[in-house]
Amino acid sequence: MSSSSQRQHQFLNGSIARALLSLAVPIIIANLLQAGYQLTDTYWVGRLGASAVAAVAVSTPVTFLVVALGAGLAMAGATLTAQYMGSGRPDMVNHVAAQTMLMVMISSVVLGTLGYILSPYLLKLLGVEANVYDSALGYMRVSFVGVIFVFIFFMFQSLMRGVGQTRVPLLIVLATVLLNFGLDPLFIFGWGPVPGFGVTGAAMATLVTQAIAASLGMWVFLRGRHGIQVKWAGFKPDLGYIRKAFFLGFPGSVELSTRGLGLIVMSFLVASFDTGTIAAYGIGANILQVITIPAMGISMAVSTLVGQNIGAGNINRASKITQLGALYGFVGLTVVGLLVYAIAPHLVAFFVPGEAVVINQGTDFIRIMALAWGCIGIQLCIVSAFRASGNMLSAMVIALVAQWMLQFPLAYVLAKHTQLGAAGLWWSFPVTNVLIAIISLCWFARGDWKKTRLTEEDQQVRRVSEEALVEEGYR
């Protein structure tokens, strides 16, 4: 039995715990390394002062929103890839990969161009302080230039996870993160004939390494030795598939865009305070991204296994995978939360040494969030199961509720209409996480997500979306 066949047997018939861990561990390591992009940027930019950190903090949610607009297509591709792999259709796996790459490349060019042009207006709309504006604009515009490379490599990773291949993306991430660590100080501070570009230099270093990662990903696909074989002829537009991917992926785009808009709205609130608060928020948000990586890795493993098992018709096994993944996520992030609570001041000081105000506010932010982090693990795993089954609508509604009915209203009321001030922003995070974990568990227990199987030949994704609307009571 080949290694690929052994892997498929393990995913569809073997120990669930072993299958989860065999997928999740490489994903977690890769995501930790990829978070090195943000951490490296924050570390070196922090040497320029609080206003420089604030520039990155303001810019990041805006670029995330643009990426999120096109990410629904990536979700559709990854979901279909996993289900076709589980149903034994390698021909459709290759077709889905080529068509999805075509769509994300076109989307990224359009969205990156719009983002670059609109950057000054977005920053003015956010009301950033004058001492932050120029640095934020440079960082944001370079980030938008690199959107196409972010899209391509994100799709490469998603499709490779769909077929259960996690080692190759891990090696690419390792190489490019190491390169980024060397390029960051070079482009930020300059050396020899290379001038220093300040905050913009951090984005330039990331742009170079992401371009290399995207190129390597395309090379792997074209060689076809790791589960997916993409040929140039496969990039000829297939309008039938594009229509299918649109109806499947549109709710995913809305979901991620909602999360991105939520980050921007939070930036509005944060920007209404002083530069120290903005910097504390940026550092706390970066640390939050890093500590959720273990749960993200588990949720991505859940997505692959649920997709493949639904494709193979193993619905009960898909349910057990989700439950075990949610348990792992809850326990893992709770333990991490306890540890981070204890060392919070040292973590913040690592990024902004000597900035007492930022260290104090950042410590408060992290400690208020930390003890509810386990609930993030539950939410991520359940939402990933919804996406893997093709129920993007359920994931979209949960995101809408989290951002617009819970977190933002809570943050606004607590920050602006109580004595908490900036601490009100911080408290909106744990309250939202606990409530959304409860909502997700109740939604999962209903079991409607089990009824979707996208790889049946007579099933159209348009009908799936319409039936999901009826089932969830929206018609």
TrEMBL record:
Pfam families assigned: MatE (PF01554)
Key words, A-Z: Cell membrane, Membrane, Transmembrane, Transmembrane helix, Transport
Ubl conjugation keyword on record: no
PANTHER family for this protein: MULTIDRUG RESISTANCE PROTEIN NORM-RELATED, MULTIDRUG RESISTANCE PROTEIN YPNP-RELATED
Residue stretches spanning the membrane: 12-33, 53-75, 96-118, 138-156, 168-191, 197-222, 261-281, 287-306, 327-353, 365-386, 393-414, 426-445
Taxonomic lineage from the root: Bacteria, Pseudomonadati, Pseudomonadota, Gammaproteobacteria, Pseudomonadales
Principal place of residence: membrane
Membrane topology: Multi-pass membrane protein
Localisation: Cell inner membrane
Superkingdom of origin organism: Bacteria
Protein name listed in UniProt: Putative efflux protein, MATE family
GO cellular component: plasma membrane
GO molecular function: antiporter activity; xenobiotic transmembrane transporter activity
